[in-house]
Specification:
By secondary structure, this protein is α+β, with helices and mostly antiparallel strands. The protein has a single domain (about 1-135), classed as Surface-adhesin protein E (Lipocalin). It has helices at about 1-15, 120-135; strands spanning about 25-30, 30-45, 50-60, 70-80, 85-95, 100-105.
């Protein structure tokens, strides 16, 4: 219960300033360009919290729904000591750079940590946020 309260508090604290996010490009894949907002980070005793954004080159289909999204914003919970990450919230937007209608907004109560593959975009993301926090 306390953990849920802390995550909710962090989401409220950091989502209020999202209109002024300072997205920094950190990589590109075949599907799109990936950004991170280093200004909207937070941490507790174990984890670092931050937002990442993906702008897709081509609109992506939402399975079982007739709508498409052009960007995805993910609020992450990351363990830099064990180099693993988990999604806390995922929002799919109709337009690029998290603009337009939010087509899906999902929150995850249980952490499902994964360790990114070496030299993948996820690996670059964790290197970027963990080196930023260690400063």
């Amino acid at each position: 219960m306390l953990r849920k309260f802390i995550v909710t508090l962090l989401l409220i604290t950091f989502s209020g300033g999202m209109a002024f996010a300072n997205w920094i490009e950190f990589g590109e894949t075949n599907s799109g360009v990936h950004y991170i907002d280093l200004n909207e980070t937070g941490s507790d005793d174990k984890y670092v919290y931050y937002w990442v954004l993906t702008n897709y080159f081509n609109p992506q289909e939402i399975p079982l729904v007739s709508k498409k999204y052009s960007s995805k914003k993910v609020y992450k919970q990351t363990d830099c000591k064990r180099f693993r990450t988990s999604a806390v919230q995922i929002i799919l937007y109709e337009k690029e750079m998290s603009k337009g209608v939010a087509l899906i907004d999902e929150n995850y109560k249980e952490s499902s940590f994964t360790t990114p593959i070496f030299e993948s975009i996820g690996f670059e993301e964790l290197e970027k946020i963990c080196s930023h926090i260690e400063r």
